[in-house]
Design a protein that fits this description.
The structure holds 2 protein chains of 2 kinds. Chain A is α/β, with parallel strands linked by helices. Helix content of chain A is 43%, strand content 14%. Chain B contains 7 helices and 4 strands. Classes of the chains: A alpha/beta, B alpha+beta. The structure holds flavin mononucleotide, iron/sulfur cluster (SF4) and FE2/S2 (inorganic) cluster (FES). The site of FE2/S2 (inorganic) cluster (FES) has 12 residues of chain B, from helix 5.
């Protein structure tokens, strides 16, 4: 086997043996191994179904997008096929949210599961050209995908008239170059067209006007890896995995102050407490959980650990990213890192987002250094009021969210900095 | 114009996608790997190969963080400074790098071999702290091991 760029060994564990059946082992699985375990049989089955039937199954499976927004996948596909061909299918492998490293192990260890999912998805929505957009820093993943595509072509799973079905498909791999915003689907499309990653105003949505102006479905890597299971098991059986309204396996990348950080594949009726204590080995030094950040999106307190890891209004949602902080960790310091992330990653297209993300980082830095004035504190209210309603994309919509939640849930931590400031005066 | 070997690689990217302008990021990665940065003189010939205006190429290079137009360096050391690595050892990693290479983040060694670049999350947070050297990704496991890794880049 050829060698790839170095990657650190990420621990992975599964109670379901689905998406991580092979990927729990830290090595690339070849097409031979994939075929030996029943690989590409879902594709054969799919070719005996009509595209409409596949979309119907995906809708009934309750599969929701694993890229953050949790939108029902079947519904998205249904919208896309209402618009005339040619259509495109895009796999979003830009994974750049802090704390998120679940798509990476699927790509690096079981690339054929992703490819099989992409071929079935493209067949369902009637796309003859599909793209994988992988973040520039996932170098090994890029080469692994190129090799896997070559293998799949040699075996007749890609190219013209796949398995005698009359369906043609080419999959192209594009690399990003260090811009988090290119994970936002319309920015991704711009980038894939060879432009800067500036999000487009929606509507029209990509399912209406996407790549090169054509109807386009963008799905996350993990979402796509569910598709072969829905087809091979059938949607009824798939619904038995976890709660029937939020069915299917979910990957949870767990990091921070836990004993066994890694990626865990679990059903969605698992609670946050179980993820941390039953699976990730509990906290380092057995300390109390102070907070959990879901990427740079949400801040939960140690009092909220009984929430289910599902997409219900009171569930954990998002990408499933679990970043654990314990009693000695400074929440203000953590928020400052989040603010710096948004400051760095705003694309700058909308003035309130560009200026607001910068101001937010400056304000937090001043608070952290004990230099903030009373007026500075009011700045947060201002930022939250103006960035969100004026932003073109989801980044601006959430840039102040985690920090606002942290201020509400940990008022005493922020208060302590206020006191520090008063003493200094 | 580009020398033959580089030109062949660029043409391969340009013929790969359904539309040639889609190859711009792949081409820029290849140019950076070749020269150690993106030389200003490479942008016009690239724009001609891609059939797009020069200012479009300029805008793209400026937008994407991985491209460095300023400092040639054989190896770019990208150090994750995001939240998980921040709490789990990025300071020690940066200190060790500064000690071994005698440069600060953002600087390049006088022989133009290494440049330290602070970056956001590299997507391997369970193994924090994380850094990359060009295409390779590593977990920081102490100064001695770091020294060993750095010496393997010649
Ligand atoms: C700022 C921003 C960054 C995003 N980054 C990613 C990403 O890296 N990967 C991803 O799959 N989705 C990302 N998304 C969500 C995508 O816009 C899109 O909803 C998703 O790819 C759809 O796939 P899904 O329905 O399978 O989740 C991001 C959204 C925003 C607003
Ligand atoms: S909201 Fe922010 S990130 Fe999104 S398009 Fe506007 S400036 Fe760019
Ligand atoms: S926070 Fe450093 S790799 Fe994710």
């Amino acid at each position: 086997m050829r060698s790839y760029p170095a990657i650190p060994e990420i621990y992975a564990e599964t109670t379901l043996n689905m998406l991580l059946k092979r990927a729990k082992k830290p090595r690339v699985h070849s097409i031979e191994e994939y075929l030996k375990e029943g690989g590409y049989q879902a594709l054969e089955k799919a070719f005996n179904m009509s595209p409409e039937e596949i979309i119907d199954w995906v809708e009934k499976s309750t599969l929701r997008g694993r890229g953050g927004a949790g939108f029902p996948t079947g519904t998205k596909w249904k919208f896309a096929v209402q618009n005339p061909a040619p259509r495109y299918f895009i796999c979003n492998a830009d994974e750049s949210e802090p704390g998120t490293f679940k798509d990476r192990i699927l790509i690096e260890r079981d690339p054929h599961l992703l490819l099989e999912g992409m071929i079935i998805s493209s067949y369902a929505i009637g796309a003859n050209e599909a793209f994988i957009y992988i973040r520039g820093e996932y170098t090994a993943g890029y080469y692994i995908l190129l090799d896997a595509i070559k293998e799949a072509k040699e075996k007749g799973f890609l190219g013209k008239n796949i398995l005698g079905s009359g369906f043609d498909l080419e999959i192209y791999v594009a690399r990003g170059a260090g811009a988090y915003i290119c994970g936002e689907e319309t920015a991704l499309i711009e980038s894939l067209e060879g432009k800067r990653g500036h999000p487009r105003l929606k509507p029209p949505y990509p399912v209406q006007v996407g790549l090169f102006g054509r109807p386009t479905v963008v799905n996350n890597v993990e979402t796509i890896c569910n598709i072969p299971f829905i087809i091979s098991m059938g949607w009824e059986e798939y619904r038995y995995i976890g709660p029937s309204d939020y069915a299917g396996p979910k990957l949870f990348p767990v990091s921070g102050k836990v004993k066994k950080p890694g990626v865990y594949e679990l059903p969605m009726n698992t609670t946050l407490r179980e993820v941390i204590f039953k699976y990730a080995g509990g906290t380092i030094g057995n300390k109390k959980v102070k907070a959990v950040f879901s990427g740079a999106l949400d801040c939960f307190s140690g009092e909220e650990l009984d929430m289910p890891m599902d997409y219900s209004p009171f569930g954990f949602g998002g990408t499933g990213t679990v970043m654990v902080f314990t009693e000695d960790d400074d929440i203000v310091e953590a928020c400052l890192q989040v603010a710096k992330f948004y400051e760095h990653e705003t694309c700058g297209q909308c003035t309130p987002c560009r200026v607001g993300c910068h101001e937010q980082a400056v304000l937090l830095e001043r608070i952290y250094r004990g230099e903030a004035t009373e007026k500075d504190w009011e700045g947060f209210v201002f930022i939250n009021r103006y960035i969100q309603p004026t932003s073109i994309c989801g980044l601006g919509a959430v840039a102040g969210r985690l920090i606002k939640q942290a201020m509400e849930k940990f008022p005493e931590e922020f208060e302590a900095y206020r006191k520090k400031l008063k003493q200094a005066i | 114009m580009f020398e033959q070997e580089l030109l062949e690689k660029l043409n391969k990217h340009i013929n790969y996608f359904p539309r040639k302008e889609q190859a711009i990021l792949l081409c820029l990665h290849t140019i950076q790997d070749h020269y150690g940065y993106i030389p200003q003189e490479s942008l016009r010939p690239l724009s001609e190969l891609l059939g797009m205006p020069l200012n479009h190429v300029e805008q793209v290079v400026a937008f994407y963080d991985m491209f460095d137009r300023e400092t040639p360096a054989k190896y770019r050391i990208r150090v994750c400074v995001s939240v998980v690595c921040h709490f789990l050892g990025k300071h020690e990693l940066l200190k060790a790098l500064e000690k071994i290479l005698k440069i600060k983040p953002g600087e390049v060694t006088p022989d133009r071999k290494f440049k330290i670049v602070p970056v956001q999350c590299l997507g391997a947070c369970s193994e924090a702290p994380i850094f990359m050297i060009n295409e390779d990704t590593y977990k920081f496991e102490g100064e001695e091991k770091l020294n060993e890794i750095l010496s393997s880049y010649t």
